[in-house]
Amino acid sequence: MPMNPERPTLTTRQGHPVSDNQSLRSVGERGPATLENYQFIEKITHFDRERIPERVVHARGTGAHGWFEPYGKIGNEPAARYTRAKVLTQTGMRTPVFLRFSTVIGARESPESKRDPRGFAIKFKTVDGNWDLVGNNLKVFFIRDAIKFPDMIHAFKPDPVTNREEPWRFYDFIANHPESLHMVTWVKSPWGIPANYRQMEGSGVNTYKLVNDQGVAHLVKFHFQPRQGVRNLTSQQAAEIQARDVGHATRDLYDAIERGDFPEWEMCVQVMSDDAHEELDFDPLDDTKRWPEDQFPLLPVGRLVLDRNPDNVFAETEQSAFGTGVLVDGIDFSDDKMLQGRTLSYSDTQRYRVGPNYLQLPINAPQEKARAHTNQQSGQMAYYVDPTGANKHVNYEPSMVAGLREAPKPAREYHQWVEGHLGRYQTTRTVDDYRQAGDRYRSFEPWERDDLVANLGADLRECPEPIRLRMVWHFWHCDEDYGRRVAEAAGVDLQQALQLPPLEGKPAPHQRRDGPTYTSGRKEEPDRQAQTQDEMASAK
Q1: Catalytic site residues (predicted)?
Q2: Which domain holds residue 104?
Q3: Is residue 535 part of a domain?
Q4: Are the CB atoms for 222 and 94 separated by under 8 Å?
Q5: Which of 99, 204, 363, 453 has its Cβ near the most Cβ atoms within 10 Å?
Q6: Where residue 301 sits, what CATH number does that domain have?
Q7: What is the number of structural domains in the chain?
Q8: What is the per-residue pLDDT across 188-222, written as a single tens digit (0 to 9) for each?
Q9: Given this model, what pLDDT does residue 5 score?
């Protein structure tokens, strides 16, 4: 790959030069994004339309129906202390759900044994309308600003010239984004290849808010812990499975449900007060970071069970459409920049991919108790007419004679004070860009570290020297043993790598040599490798 020092200036499609391609415009460093983000809107809406007809990301997937039942508590306290959302507070009420699992980068027919984050998207059909929680199996992500999402996916997808996924493209992007090191450490370890969909964790990834009857908000993260335990694969184990079956995870989920072995997860949340938490070395709104579980424990909320396979894969699984902006009263947005960007992007993608009336499809429509009544009409493939009231002449609001009316307002509405200078900002709290990746490396079992280092070494040997050196520099600043072992595996002179200066425009990294600040969640599964090997032997 030749290096070209004379490169054209990046512009919008209107020809406007782009001086900052790293950050959304927001009100202050932590404030909400604004609707006049033209550069981002042009970029993300074009990105949403790059593929026909399959999803741009999460194309390979399978799904199942089931239900969610809340405990009525968050930890040891009544759930109503934190939220007025009925789906989380009303004990004995089972909410229908549809859960779609997926891989992220691969095409629709790609192997499910491939190293890749897994999608974990849930549609809750609550009595107050739909709630979509669109997450992954891992609790963090590669980036913290949505304006970088098209760049990230382009770097991870096949080269537009060779049509191959080239390691140098992946690491070329990562090398310029130290916040990605945490996610890379997860994905390149065995955690990057779950053994199946039933035995993997789920996470909402984004930071949301819970709002109670008094209008008081708490920041929240949603997590799902599998009752079946967690199992992951090494690269060698995944290759053996792929040689026999490219859809092993779909087969495993379908067969388990058909034989009555219904997979189950416990929903847990982490909560913290709704403020900046300056005492932390990271911003709680940063999706590349985990909230330390010794400070913000996982609190049980309810149980999720899958008990029915789709009647038709296309009609249900492929046409199921999720959006992070689909929330119910009592669950609200935070100023998480990834969440704010996804909220535009995901629903925009569905309108393009499935059509403007995708919410009329049974798989996406809310349950009968929360049937939709809108003044929206017509559009491609409309097959029933709103409004559904007695007088269909009035398709506007308000009216003195007929039509729809506004719902009663909550007794205490949630109001957020927003103040700041409008501009483009990057977070200044970057210490944990390296610290949490190092913590994660040290928390792995020896066989997991061995597999992680082998995978990184094999990838980096295919990369140009500047990328190899910079990645070793990054890993060494996460943990000295981590960097040394990757250097040896990649054939890199460690001392040459350590002579590199910090990235331009990035603060110098800080290291820490103590142990992890969060638990690995493995107390009930002491040897996942042995379990997975037993599973593979029984499947042969």
Answers
A1: 58, 136
A2: 25-371
A3: no
A4: no
A5: 99
A6: 2.40.180.10
A7: 1
A8: 999 999 999 999 999 999 999 999 999 999 999 99
A9: 64
